[in-house]
Every structure is written in structure tokens, then in C-alpha cells.
Amino acid sequence: MDVRETNRRVIEQFRAGRPVEGMHRDRLVLLTTAGRQTGRPHTTPMMFHRDDDVLLVVASNIGAPQHPDWYLNLVVDPAVDIEIDGERYPGAAEALEGDRREETWAMLTDTYPFFADHETRTERTIPVVALRRS
Questions:
Q1: Which 3 state secondary structure label does DSSP give 8?
Q2: Tens of pLDDT along 29-52?
Q3: Is the pTM of this model over 0.85?
Q4: What is the structure's pLDDT at 24?
Q5: In what order do the strands lie in the sheet with 28-34?
Q6: Quick one: which H or E segment has residue 73?
Q7: What letter does residue 125 receive in the DSSP assignment?
Q8: Which of 18, 30, 98, 109 gives 116 a disulfide partner, CB atoms 3.0 to 4.6 angstroms apart?
Q9: Phi/psi class of residue 62: alpha, beta or left (left: φ > 0; alpha: ψ in -120 to 50)?
Q10: Are 77 and 34 in contact (CB under 8 A)?
Q11: Closest CA to 105 of 132, 81, 133, 125
């Protein structure tokens, strides 16, 4: 599977307002981060969980040993662009830490058990990120 091609297709379908092949459109957010080396924008489609006015995203990388690029980018620059529900707006990303991360992770793995499966595949702590409108 070509992840870049899949992401390109998902982004195109999402922005066109069409159904997103193989995914639940109402659970997708497009997150644009600045590349940590180039500063160029990089857009990644991902699943989110809404918690009041905060969107929670998980940097599971399907249990890979390394964090996903989008997460490494926002660690360097937490200013992001968020696209959801036909709207695009600037946002700020915050990796949750300590008890807050643990409580949120427990809720997310209970709600979406596949994240617990991702956790079994890696030795790293999987980051949970809160996205807020700036």
C-alpha cells in the first residue's frame, strides 16, 4: 500500500466534500503541520475524537517504532491548520502529558480498541495530541 497515494486520495475526496473511500468522513480531520526541516506545509488525514471544543488525535503510527512525521513536526512548531466539517482554521497542538495523557489514553483505548492493539506493537509511549482553535 502506498501511504502517500492513499493520503492524497483521501485529502482530495475530503476537500471535494465527497464520501471518503474506506473511511468515515465524520471522523476525519486534515491536519497541516510545518515540516520540521523545510518549513513546507504537510497535510495528513487522520481520525479524531471530539472532546467538547478540543479534537484529540493519536500518534500511534499503527504501532511503528517511531513517531509519525506529523507529530515530530508539531513538536517543533505547534501551530497547525485544521480542516474539519468544511471549515479550515488555524490551531495549536499540545501533546498531553502525565495523568492527563493517561486518563485520555484510557478513554481512547476503551472507545477505540485498535489503539490498544497499536500499543502492543511498540515500546514507545504513543502520544495523544489536543488540537485547539487559535
A1: helix
A2: 999 999 999 999 999 999 999 999
A3: yes
A4: 87
A5: 41-47, 28-34, 79-84, 87-95, 128-133, 54-58, 49-51
A6: helix 69-76
A7: P
A8: 109
A9: left
A10: yes
A11: 125
Phi, psi of 49 (to 5 degrees): -125, 125
CA-based torsion, 90, 131, 111, 47: positive or negative? positive
Listed as own residue / partner, the contacts of 111-119 with beta carbons closer than 8 Å and 24 or more positions apart are 111/49, 112/47, 112/49, 115/58, 115/60, 117/63, 118/60, 118/61, 118/62, 118/63, 119/60, 119/63
Which residues share a beta bridge with 5? none
Cβ pair 90, 74 in contact under 8 A: no
Residue identified by cell 471518503 is 20
Nearest-angstrom CA–CA distance, 130 and 69: 17
Q: Which three cell numbers stand for residue 114?
A: 485498535
pLDDT band at 134 (very low <50, low <70, confident <90, very high): very high
Q: All 3 cell numbers of residue 126?
A: 504513543
